[in-house]
Design brief:
With 281 residues, the protein is of the alpha+beta class. It has one domain: 2,3-Dihydroxybiphenyl 1,2-Dioxygenase, domain 1 (Roll). It is built from five helices and 18 strands. The strands form three sheets. It has an eight-stranded mixed sheet with strand order 2-3-4-1-15-18-17-16, with helices on one face. The protein has an eight-stranded mixed sheet with strand order 6-7-8-5-11-14-13-12. It has a two-stranded antiparallel sheet with strand order 9-10. Strand 7 and strand 8 form a beta hairpin. The two termini are 24 Å apart. 38% of the residues are buried.
Length: 281
């Protein structure tokens, strides 16, 4: 029996390392509609309602990641309703050089996919009500169907919509080398519950009955080993409700030989591919 993460677990900010801090900051302000939260030498925090969603760090000496390596697949920004999502998509169409990567009706949500100027995947999405999500044998039934993005915006856009409120990091999707190792780490050790899988290609995990807080796939990265120190993903933050929850995770990780940096407020550790995770309360 697994000791699962508490139901109130949520995703915190995603840290991205970039060679052009000003360019990437401008993109996240203009498109997703984030606002400045904090600034320090070589770093900025952007978010909504005073909560940081993305932290950008200047790393001019690092090279770009190999697209076949482990790392970030996409950061998913969850908007509180379809109107807020439509407004964000409209803003994206006005971003110079915007790269649109498609849409997906996943049954549980409607999503638009983009690529930021550094090549990081970004999903902008809105959930459907939980009472229409379909579950079978403890697994959520997610689909990937198309829809007309222009029709979505026309139907849901509210005139005069401004900056978003209530947006969060809904989930983070990673590239990994194999699914069984990901399951052993993210489910057995970290404590997420498995909610869906696509054979040996992808795994979806969550806390509290959400469709997924994290996902791992091998679509570009099958067989990948430990990632190099590159631009792109720097850190994934996971937030649990209390210190007791952190202690349970610390024990599970220690039992499995995972090295943990414990500063008294957070736990820092790497997944098997060197993707850095930080757990805080």
């Amino acid at each position: 029996m697994n000791d699962f993460l508490p139901d109130a677990t949520r995703m915190g900010p995603v840290t991205l390392r970039t060679a052009d801090l000003a360019r990437l900051e401008r993109w996240y302000l203009q498109g997703p509609g984030l606002s400045p939260i904090a600034e320090s030498p070589g770093a900025v925090e952007l978010g909504v309602d005073g909560r940081t969603l993305v932290r950008l760090e200047a790393a001019p000496d690092l090279r770009g990641p190999d697209p076949r390596a482990a790392g970030l697949f996409h950061t998913a920004v969850l908007y509180e309703d379809q109107a807020s999502l439509a407004a964000a998509v409209l803003r994206m169409t006005q971003v110079p050089g915007m790269v649109f990567a498609g849409v997906g009706d996943h049954g549980v949500s409607e999503a638009f996919y983009f690529v930021d100027p550094d090549g990081n995947g970004v999903e902008l999405y809105a959930d459907r009500p939980r009472d229409v999500w379909r579950w079978q044998d403890g697994r959520v039934q997610m689909t990937t169907d198309g829809f007309d993005p222009s029709a979505f915006v026309r139907e849901h856009l509210v005139e005069g919509a401004g900056q978003p409120t209530g947006a969060t990091v809904g989930h983070v999707h990673l590239q990994v080398g194999d699914v069984p190792t990901a399951r052993a780490f993210y489910v057995d050790a970290l404590g997420f519950a498995e909610t869906a899988s696509l054979g040996g290609q992808a795994l979806f995990v969550s806390a509290g009955g959400y469709h997924h807080h994290m996902a791992m796939n091998t679509w570009n990265s099958a067989g990948a080993g430990r990632r190099a120190d590159t631009l792109g993903l720097g850190l994934v933050d996971v937030v649990v409700p209390d210190a007791e929850s952190m202690g349970a995770v610390r024990e599970r990780l220690a039992d499995r030989g995972v090295q943990v940096a414990d500063d008294g407020a957070t736990l820092g550790f790497d997944d098997p591919w060197g993707n850095r995770i930080r757990l805080g309360a």
